[in-house]
Amino acid sequence: MIAVSFNTLDEARHHLEELDVNRGLVLFAAAAAVRELSRHAPSRAVLCSTKGEYTPQGYRSGVITGFEYEAGIADIVGILHPPVLSASTLEIAYRKVRGNPNAFLMLLCDGTGGMEEMLLSSLYFMDPQFKVIGGSAADDERGETYLYIGTRRVRNLGIYFNMPDRIALIKENIYIPSGKTLLVTEADVFGRRVYSFNGRPAAGEYARVLGVPEKELAEHFLSSPLGKRYEDDLIIASPKAVHPDGSVTFYSQIMSSTYVELLSSADPLAVLEETLGGSPFKPSFVLNINCTLRDQLFTRDGLWGDFDEKMLGFCGNTTGFISYGEQYYTKHANQTMILLLVE
């Protein structure tokens, strides 16, 4: 896999038009650029709208980036709505690669529909240990996300990669448990809305446990999200908005009668060093998916420059994008970084 990056639409358009027949291509760009480039995309090219781009030169915004690969190793599947309608097509593609321990599924989803968990549940036929990595496409000023397979616009899509090289998936959290928990006592799981914690209005109780005035709660969302515990794994659920009735909506599902953990932020650069230091091998290629909320935090605190230095020192052949949520195996996460490493 080879990372590519283009500063202008003309450069990206020319690359699409001249793409070798034996090569596949995935491109990440802002919504307007994706709409324009889709008119020139061959069927073996995938386009995804983003909130920002990660390139071999580091974090950027307003460029076009992505990666090329040997077309024969990939099977691209458009996913219908609801996703279960495409389960049989996805299963056929999965059967071709399930015996390969280095195969993986890349999921690109509509980032505004709130359907990521439903999509993941439609993969019931897959081994839970089969590797899945993905991100949710970002929207434009009209609230629309854009995903294309060639010139065909789709709601969601998956690419099964039958990799000949060893791969690994890594999930990075820059948040740690604070030791405080909340019991979800009333929630609309499909609406991603929590009405009460500990039997009290959600916003007020969230603020009380955090130790801040309720009217200031939203100001602490970036630094104090919630965590959902799955055995030994912690999946971040980021709060989105506080409503007049005291309820709180999130960027992922939270279920009633479960506990969530109040998280606090660690040193992001120290965590990154630990993440990269734990790699099982020296990669020749890295796909890097960062949540838009991490982008907001890193931009606010001026961290992208130091992040780039460490990430590109680890592997210069790196690409990726800023997403509206991350898919990691069977879970949908927020405020997370997901890495695909190829040896």
TrEMBL record:
<protein>
    <recommendedName>
        <fullName>FIST domain-containing protein</fullName>
    </recommendedName>
</protein>
<dbReference type="Pfam" id="PF10442">
    <property type="entry name" value="FIST_C"/>
</dbReference>
<dbReference type="InterPro" id="IPR013702">
    <property type="entry name" value="FIST_domain_N"/>
</dbReference>
<feature type="domain" description="FIST">
    <location>
        <begin position="20"/>
        <end position="201"/>
    </location>
</feature>
<feature type="domain" description="FIST C-domain">
    <location>
        <begin position="202"/>
        <end position="330"/>
    </location>
</feature>
<dbReference type="Pfam" id="PF08495">
    <property type="entry name" value="FIST"/>
</dbReference>
<dbReference type="InterPro" id="IPR019494">
    <property type="entry name" value="FIST_C"/>
</dbReference>
